[in-house]
Amino acid sequence: MRYDEYGRWSRRASDWIESYFATIDDRPVRAETRPGDIAALIPESAPEQPEPMETVFSDFERIIPDGLTHWQHPRFFAYFPANAAPASMIAEQLTSAFGVLCMLWQTSPAGTELEIAMVGWIRQALGLPDSFRGVIQESASSATLTAVLTMRERALGFDGNRTGLAGQRRVRIYTSDEAHSSVEKAVRIAGVGSENLIRIPTDDADSLIAEALSERIVEDRRAGHIPAGVVAVIGSTSVGASDHLRPILETCRRERLYSHVDAAWAGSAMICPELRQTWDGIEFADSLVFNPHKWLGAQFDCSVQLLADPADQVRTLAVKPGYLKTLEHSGVVDLSELSIPLGRRFRALKLWFLFRAYGLEGLRSRIRNHIAWARELEGRLADVPKIEIVTPCRFSLFTFRYRPDNQDPDTATRDLLQRLNQDGRIYLTQTIHRGQFVIRVQVGQFDTTRDDVLSVADVVAELTSSDGSA
Asked: Can you give the pTM of this predicted structure?
């Protein structure tokens, strides 16, 4: 394919995308394929000779869409959203055309300076102090890993990178059972080890108990271990729980521990001033992360990490060989020094397009609607016979289970979830909460409507009403 053919095929792709979104409501939310169905339609080897783009595009239409779970479907209520707002999609198309790497200022000055500006816009939108600086990472998992590495290095006097961890005392990092699995993965990768990720008990609201944290830090110091940091949570993946930040972060400051706040999903809601009481005390955090690629409308990957002082993370991560130095200018910012990969995509462009195309108030309206509709749905489901709300609506996430007569609730709930997803009209996922199998409902798809959200109650009522035990 030549560049002089690009316009034709780009228009063909754009037309297909427009038609896709116009008809997405008619598709089942989750793919209705079995393992191996798609692989069976793909040749085992690449072609030796070029194939016509007409053939390539036709095969795309024939094979790929029906083999996808449609994350942009307005009745996608599983996991967390991975939105792709139209303005963000346009920016991504332009980014793909440029193909730039934003690792150093000199490799893409506009990429670096727009990213710094977008982080500033976000800092203001979230109501954070002007002193916070930051970087766009590819995911919250990456941001959490950088924070854990920084915790480790600061606790070891920045000697771990030089001498390794062999022979060192045990480094301890603290969190709760509500923390995302990426925290455990981060301590593994960082060489801290899963045994040194200490799970602090939670209260009835699933929030980490600050007093228990303080006690465990003292206990570990007495045992000769090195308390290094805490990962707190705002809007947990499982049930949407949030830690009470102020006492936790005050403990971190008093005990000289590095603090990181994982607000990957719910952080987007903090553009709404009335919701910020949920993270009261956030100004005392050393690091925090949230994902505009979840609830704000930017496509994956786009995760913003904000830092009270970037110096420790730079000291932990930066490696500067001669071939990566900018010779013509001094004092420039190279954002790769805050990231694990050297290569970095031009992620700031989609945020620039997104904020300007929808405005903060437009984005706030969507989030407020999602929260209101989720709470309304929670009430509707509570009125469905044999349905029990297990955890209340936090932001726009709640959980429920099915309790028919004479049947184990875990088995009944698991069976109901399978029937709901096989039905195709909605898509939900599960979690285990305090030993119980429960169904999660999370509202956040960019173009969902009140009718889409309330349809969950209709589908649940329909599928359970046919059960003889219901």
From this structure: 0.92
